[in-house]
Amino acid sequence: MIIEDIFKALGDPTRLRIARLLGAMELAVGELAQVLGQSQPRVSRHVGILCDAGLAERRREGSWVFLRQVEARGPLVEAVQRLLAVAEAEEPAFAALCEADRKKLAAIRDARESAAEHYFARHAGEWDELRALHSADAEVERRLAEALADAPLGHLLDIGTGTGRMAELFAPHAERIVALDKNLEMLRVARAKLQHLPAAQIELVQGDFAELPLADASFDTVVLHQVLHFATDPAPALAEAARVLRPGGRIAIVDFASHDHEELRTRHQHTRLGFSDRQMAELLRAAGFVPAAPQALEGGPLVVKIWTAKRRANASSPKPAALETAK
User: Fold this and answer.
1) Quick one: DSSP state of residue 246?
2) Distances (CA, A) of 12 to 6, 17, 19, 50
3) Residues with Cβ within 8 Å of residue 74, at least 6 apart in sequence
4) What is the dihedral of CA 170, 173, 177, 179, to 10 degrees?
5) What is each CA distance from 3 to 8, 13, 72, 132, in whole angstroms?
6) DSSP 153-166
7) What percent of the chain has pLDDT over 90?
8) In the prediction, which pLDDT does 122 show?
């Protein structure tokens, strides 16, 4: 980043509008084009200039490219963000443009929520069938929140965010949340649920839990809520969770105790039929964690378990070991 690039990026009214929009929420290039009333290629050129200047960043999800405001990375970027806020407060013409743009964001939000509702309608029967087999979601969430209440959440990673419910639950208590999922359709459902949160607090990322596209030691808390039973081998996923946790960071895993409901393999694509406490403790220790006592919620044919653990301060990069399939 050099000062000439920043001044060039700020030298166009459309780029100023884009910079303010990205401060409100993460947007796809096509959504930006819709708000600005400009062609997608033209908006892409403006976005490229902002990204080259370090004032925005791209993230690809399948065929879509999403843009977000960069986190504050030094005094220059912070100064630009303050300058734009002051300009909107003090310059009536710029303020009017920004206000009109933000009103158009309502259509973007409505479209996202509509797509999410259609997804829920298609899958509601499957989810209701599974919920009937275990404790009420509200009770699981309450117990999970209690299990993590003994220390600040800090920067939280929600692996396999699904509908975004865990990110939504912990947003009031975390400094920042990254919600990750491999499935593009689920990410769009989560985006609709989380789009009212401050843009600087929440980031949605596409990625595989066995190969997280995230930096080492960058989180204080990791949550895997009803995710690990989709893993053929859970060890790499836990090794990756350990890698991105800071020493002393915490992991919370919500999943099923070992069971014999074979129909879940075909009806809900569960790869593993739950975990025993011994299996989970071995997995966690192998990944560099110190397990705490597990909790059990017995509210139906399936027992929900909450396993928590802390990342060892002196643990080296874990080498995942395969685990035999639970019977």
Assistant:
1) E
2) 11, 9, 11, 10
3) none
4) 0
5) 9, 18, 16, 59
6) --EEEEET-TTTHH
7) 52
8) 66
Question: What pTM was computed for the model?
Answer: 0.75
Rounded mean pLDDT, 11-27:
90
Eight-class DSSP state of 224: E
Closest-CA residue to 6 (of 14, 15, 41):
15
Burial of 70-99, coded b for 16+ CB within 10 Å and e otherwise, reads: beeeeebbeebbeebeeebeeeeebeebbe
Please name the residues in contact with 239: beta carbons below 8 A apart, sequence gap of 6 or more. Answer: 286, 287, 288, 317, 318, 319, 320
| 64 residue type, one letter | W
Per-residue pLDDT reduced to its tens digit, 23-60: 888 898 999 999 999 999 999 999 999 999 988 988 88
Hunting for tokens 């000062």 — which residue is that? 3
DSSP letter assigned to residue 217:
T
List the structure tokens of 85.
């806020």
Q: What is the largest CA-CA distance in the chain?
A: 67
What does 259-319 look like in DSSP terms, one character per residue? ---THHHHHS--SS--B-HHHHHHHHHHTTEEE---EEEESSSSEEEEEEEEE-TT-----
Alpha helices in the chain (DSSP H): 3-9, 13-24, 29-36, 40-52, 75-90, 92-131, 137-147, 165-170, 184-194, 234-244, 263-267, 277-286
Q: Which residues contact 248 (CB under 8 A, 6 or more apart)?
A: 310, 311, 313
**Residue 155's beta-bridge partner residues?**
176
Residue pair 242/299 in contact (Cβ under 8 Å)? The answer is: no
Distances (CA, A) of 66 to 27, 37, 242, 310: 5, 18, 28, 34
Query: Residue 10: what residue type?
Result: L
Confidence of residue 327 (pLDDT cuts 50, 70, 90): very low
Torsion sign, CA atoms 307, 312, 313, 318:
negative
